[in-house]
Amino acid sequence: MEETVRVCAIENEAESEIVCSILKEQGIPFALRKSEDSAYDGIFAAHAPWAIIEAPLPYVDSINQVLRDVRQSHAAKQQAAPASKDKRRSLRPQVDIAVPVLLALCVIVLLGIVVNQKHLLDRYVGQQFIVWKWDAFEKAMVGRLQSNGRLRYKDYDRNLNFVYEERNVYSLGDRITTYYDDNEDGFSDRYVEKRGDGTVISQGEDHNENGVYEHEVVYHSKDTFVEYIDTDDDGLYDQAVIHNKGKIRTIDIRQELYGDQP
Q1: Which of 148, 243, 252, 262 has the largest CB neighbor count within 10 A?
Q2: How many CB atoms lie within 10 A of CB 5?
Q3: Who contacts 209 (Cβ-Cβ below 8 Å, separation ≥6)?
């Protein structure tokens, strides 16, 4: 029969539960003797450890290693706990500052939205004889004639930034003119005018985005159309290029109107 010896002292019940659980999992034979057990007659209760582990001699090193691992793990947790508390304390002043700043930013953003929305509504309310209504499905302001409810305008704001990137103007005679604000600066960069059947009647482009259409085309038929060109961006067309069934003729509009004067 193997000799049984006292291996180590256990400091408390929590340590006992962990160590005993590990020893059982590893199949190490041992016996736990508490200080108040009758085997000791209470002699060591006042000064002895909470309990002592006894085991066969060959398992002494293994049990001591388990106990060291448990105590090292416990010590590491105790060191980490104050560090996390200190970290939370150090973050508290930053949080106290960040929360009011975030609230102030939210208020500023909301005020900006309200002001922009007010300017937008003022712009539309100022137009007489038109009743405006926001269409959330199409993301567009829809304007109808007050007299008969006929559709007159559709201004699309698909990215909801209070700048309408596309405006459709519905005219009598079933014509539709679409103005595009590609850079969303509040000014039209190009337009296309169509009949109700989709046939393009005219179109224009503002290449340098200065608010003036430098190039416009008016269609009389598919292969007969006139290009008007403003070469100096003064708002007046300088040239007219006539396309007539494959034949092209260029007219200097200023020369025709004013002779040799520029």
Answers
A1: 243
A2: 12
A3: 183, 185, 187, 189
Q: Which residue has tokens 């169509």?
A: 194
- CA torsion sign for 3, 7, 10, 11 is positive
SS3 percent helix, strand, coil of the chain, rounded to 5, is: 35, 30, 35
Please tell me the distance from the alpha carbon of residue 215 to that of residue 182, in angstroms, as a whole number: 16
CA distance 154 to 17: 76
DSSP labels, 183-199: T-SSS--EEEEEETTS-
The two three-digit tokens of residue 177, written as one number: 């003119």
Q: Are 230 and 213 in contact (CB under 8 A)?
A: yes
70-94 pLDDT tens trace? 888 888 877 776 655 555 566 566 6
CATH architecture, range 130-258: Alpha-Beta Complex (3.90)
Both tokens of 135, joined, read: 């269409």
Among 172, 211, 219, smallest CA distance to 190 is for: 211
Query: pTM to 2 decimals?
Result: 0.51
Q: Give residue 10's identity as a one-letter amino acid code.
A: I
| Cα dihedral 252, 207, 190, 161 in deg (nearest 10) | -160
* Distance between CA atoms of residues 166 and 184, nearest Å: 9
Residues 98-119 have pLDDT tens digits of: 777 788 787 787 766 555 555 5
Q: Domain boundaries in the chain? A: 4-78, 130-258
Specify the length of the chain in residues.
262
Is the Cβ–Cβ distance between 2 and 58 less than 8 Å?
Answer: yes
Cα(21)–Cα(69) distance, rounded to whole angstroms? Answer: 13
Report d(CA 252, CA 183) in Å as an integer: 32
